[in-house]
Amino acid sequence: MYLQVSACWCVHRSSTPPSRTVGSSQNYRHWVYTIPADHRFFGGGAGIVVFWGVLSRARWRMHSIRLAVRSCSPLVCGAMTDPGTTAASAHRLPKQTQRYGLDLHLWQPEEAAALHAVIPANVDHLRPYMAWIALEPQTLDQRRELLETWAADWASGGDLTVGIWRAGQLVGSGGLHRRPGPGGLEIGYWVARDHLNQGIATAASRALTDLAFTVPGIERVQITHDVNNLASARIPATLGFRRLPDRPSCIAQGPAGTGIEGLWQVTKDEWRVH
Ligand SMILES: CC(C)(COP(=O)(O)OP(=O)(O)OC[C@H]1O[C@@H](n2cnc3c(N)ncnc32)[C@H](O)[C@@H]1OP(=O)(O)O)[C@@H](O)C(=O)NCCC(=O)NCCS
Description:
Domain N-acetyltransferase: 113-269
Number of strands: 12
Bound molecules: coenzyme A
Strand order of the largest sheet: 5-6-7-8-9-10-12-11
Helix content: 25-40%
CATH class of the largest domain: Alpha Beta
Keywords: Transferase
CATH topology of the largest domain: Aminopeptidase
Pfam family, one: Acetyltransf_3
GO molecular function: protein N-terminal-serine acetyltransferase activity; protein-N-terminal-alanine acetyltransferase activity
Structural class: alpha+beta
Distance between the termini: 34 Å
Protein name: N-acetyltransferase
Order of helices and strands: EEEHHEEEHHHEEEHEHEEH
Number of helices: 8
Oligomer: single chain
């Protein structure tokens, strides 16, 4: 029996990820540390996250540290899990899929200009529920570094972060993230405001779910969203995911975040008959 606690912080400049980094979401990285549940030294068995190095490393901005502290209460983030699956030991995720009229592929550094054109035009649209928007504005070089970080993360067996392209046009971004731990992947997405309500997030999530279940050992796919993010909730509902009990959020949230996230899941068997 183990207790898992997680932390998240922003990557202000590209850097070599710590060895226990198991997931990332846009500029934010999620760090998961697994300790024996009976390790009483860590706050009565609840566990604590020690942000060693945080204060000494200038690339981690203070606001993200505050978010991390808020989101890392072991009492709310704790989960019994089996240790041993880290990015290094996991299968590398497939890097692309073309389905349902969309092209989803691992972000490439040379695509930074496309991202740089879309994000500034969508800051207000994305700000409420996307914590990383707090890092805007970013330079083109910073975006290129970020895409390099994502590519390196994928290459080392970590998350798959993709651009969502339709007819050659960038319409959003998404990914398969390892946050759920062994056997699971979590889908993330955003769509540019000029392309909303055209079924893009739903189609992209359908394609990513298909893709996730091609990965050996993946038995469940999850989608989470702030409980107030009703548009986001429609995507897993439409795709036939089952809603599990809401839970405190363990990742950095945007300013509209309530701290409570809706959690949806589909298993491989359920998806097969869907
Ligand atoms: C959430 C988001 C990704 C949806 O993208 P999209 O491509 O427009 O999604 P789809 O067109 O596939 O589906 C949207 C669904 O939400 C519904 N919807 C749209 N706005 C809504 C609102 N304000 N309240 C409730 N439902 C809403 C649509 O009617 C549709 O539902 P339906 O399929 O039952 O008709 C997009 O709004 C977005 O990028 N938001 C900002 C970033 C974000 O919140 N990302 C998700 C974080 S968990």
